[in-house]
Each structure stands twice: as C-alpha cells, then as structure tokens.
Amino acid sequence: MKIINHLPLLLIALFCYSSDFAQTDGTGKWKTIDDETGEAKSVVEIYEKEGAIHGKIIKLFDREGLDPDPVCDKCPTDDSRYNKKVIGMEIMKNLKKDGDEYSGGTVLKPDEGKIYKCKIWLENGKLYVRGYWGFFYRTQTWERYN
Prior knowledge:
mainly beta, Lipocalin, eight-stranded antiparallel beta barrel
C-alpha cells in the first residue's frame, strides 16, 4: 500500500534518471568552439539516425564580416552538400559506438569544404570532436547548448 502512495515519486525519479542516461551518448545541442580562436561558431544538433550518430548545424553565431546565411561553396563538387545552405546541413555522419566513443564516421568543416574522419567522446560534460586527416588531427571541445 505504501508503494502505491509513492508511485508518482518513483515514476518521476525513474524519468529523471532515464533523461540523464540519454544525455550520456552525446545527443542534443552543442555549441561549437573554435580550437584556434576560442570563439563560439555554431550550434550543432547531434542525433541518432539508422543506428548511427549524425549532427547538423542549426544555428550560426554572428561574426563580423561573414555571411550570416552562407552556402558551402568550398565543399567538394561531387558532394550532395555542395552549394547548399550551411544552416540545416548535416556535417557529421555515420559515427558508430566503439567503447566509450563514437567513431568511423566523418565530419565536414563547411568553411573549408574539407571532410575529415571523425571520432567523438564525452568527458566531464563536454563533447570532444576530433577530425583526422592522415596522421594529423585536431580536437575541438564543444559545450552543451540550452
């Protein structure tokens, strides 16, 4: 009888726990931070699609002298994203779970038009995004965006 009286509290606790658990895979909205300048550049929404992690740009932060609604004119001409608007563009594709990280996919840097092999992982509430080109790599640290 006492459990029935506390059922609403148990359901709320279970919901809160499962919501926190869902955040451990990196899905959600993230503010991208340029690793060279430290400036916020965009907001990327990371989501699961067909068993893999993908990400698309949903917002660009205003930066003086830059087009607020650019197209990816530097993307490879044989890529479906060539000359498409950057806002709404899927820049991260096909990352699969591999232990504590997601890897095996690609990430596009639209302002350069370059596509890199990619892996991501969560650490201390931040998302680390590493792009590879051969043996060289760069890592950005993204912050949750509310």
